[in-house]
Design brief:
It is built from 6 helices and 2 strands. Strands 1-2 form a two-stranded antiparallel ribbon. The two termini are about 35 Å apart.
Length: about 170
């Protein structure tokens, strides 16, 4: 299976939503080998391996970008043949046990001051007020105000997000 096929398969799987992780014997063995390798590495070994992994990452990232562009191109060609509804879902059954699902959606933006004035006497209002946690303020309180944090911590769930990895070309010594 080529890298592009793997990426396309991953994109299709992602569109289906989260799936339970199943580790095949090969993947499990590779992960165990990597764990064993880490314990025996010296700094120069780590730098050599990181150089190689950085190259592999850049190649994979470019292949991912190209696969994404190709998928978008294919989607545009499909939508030329099967125009979507302006809003809502439509299906097109194919002869090979597949179907094409397209979802049309309109987004609405408003001048809220003007809209509020126009509907001030209405019983129902097309305006929603959303209350949500201020993450920047929560980070500040957690880092700088431990007494306040202890009071509100029972109402806050904190969990790590996915760690981002970026590899950039550089000309200076970091």
């Amino acid at each position: 299976m080529t890298l592009a096929e793997i990426i396309i398969k991953a994109i299709l799987a992602a569109e289906k939503g989260p799936q339970p992780l199943e580790l095949g014997a090969d993947l499990r063995r590779r992960l165990e080998n990597r764990a064993n390798m880490r314990t025996a590495m010296t700094k120069s070994n780590i730098d050599t391996i990181l150089d190689q992994l950085a190259e592999e990452w850049l190649v994979a990232k470019e292949a991912e970008r190209e696969a994404n562009l190709e998928r978008i191109n294919i989607e545009e060609r499909i939508l030329e043949l099967v125009p979507p509804k302006e809003e809502g879902v439509s299906y097109r059954k194919l002869g090979n046990s597949y179907r094409i699902k397209s979802t049309g959606k309109l987004s609405y933006k408003a001048d809220l001051d003007k809209l509020t004035t126009l509907v001030k006497d209405w019983e129902i209002k097309p305006i929603k007020v959303e209350i949500k946690a201020d993450e920047a303020m929560l980070k500040h309180i957690r880092a700088n105000c431990p007494d306040l944090w202890r009071v509100i911590a029972i109402a806050i769930t904190t969990k790590p997000s996915k760690t981002a990895v970026t590899i950039e070309e550089t000309t200076d010594d970091l």
